[in-house]
Design goal:
globular; 8 helices; 314 residues; 9 strands
Amino acid sequence: MSEPAAASSGTPFLEIDRARWAALAPAAALPLDERQLIRLRGLGEPLEADEVADVYAPLSRLLNLYATARRRLHQDTSAFLGEQESKVPFVIGIAGSVAVGKSTVARLLRELLSHWEGTPRVELVTTDGFLLPNAELERRGLMTRKGFPESYDRRSLLRFLSRVKSGVEEVRAPFYSHLSYDIVPTAEIVVRRPDVLIVEGLNVLQPPTVGGKLAVSDLFDVGIYVDARTSDIARWYEERFLRLQRGAFADPKSYFHRYASLTESEARERARSIWAEINEPNLVENILPTRSRASLVLRKDSDHSVRSVLLRKL
């Protein structure tokens, strides 16, 4: 079992407990109502208003300050070089295990950041769209390693982010369907020079590959890692699988429709098997080692609430 990263005077991180972090919350009223919170919640995640106010409101303000400072630095650098300033999006990478809640964090930050002056236009892209199509994964014998680094078209993802960071007016990304569990060739996501782009995915904080010149994480202004004990994540994954089995898997169009008729005990056994064979090895081998590369770590407790924040010292 992995434990969340420790933080002491000998590490590059400053650890801030929940109470101290909550005290940094902005005085402005929370811009989200209960209906919005319900829409933003992940499957099985008990996201409440106090969690948003205590954790994510201060985080959104800090990220807004970072984005504003980066824009000011860009303006000053352009003036120093005698160049015409061009708008370049501030890019945030969010990493973490399957079922740890990173998608909810990404959706929340997109919503909250858009309420701050200076970052009204925030867009979100997940790296699922850069998974290789199922047919190609089958051809390479990688279907059982879907979500592992080698299952992504990293070159396309790098090209996409490079164009975003270059200030290209319009950049397109592939669209992934969780219903069909595959890339949809007739659909795409269009990013048009937002103030902030959030990129969410399992392995986005990985270092360059051996012999590689550039990593996806090199194009981030801030990297966030959503952390929890492995035993808690395994339990969350099992609970989420059961909810999906009773819900989305019932759709005949679902890739996982074959699991819809399982009994609860059979579904639990299948979820544990998938976790042990695929998701836990990916976490241990590929995702967890990138935690130390983050600018900020959200440490979750067993009930999904954030109990402390690790902030990289400047």
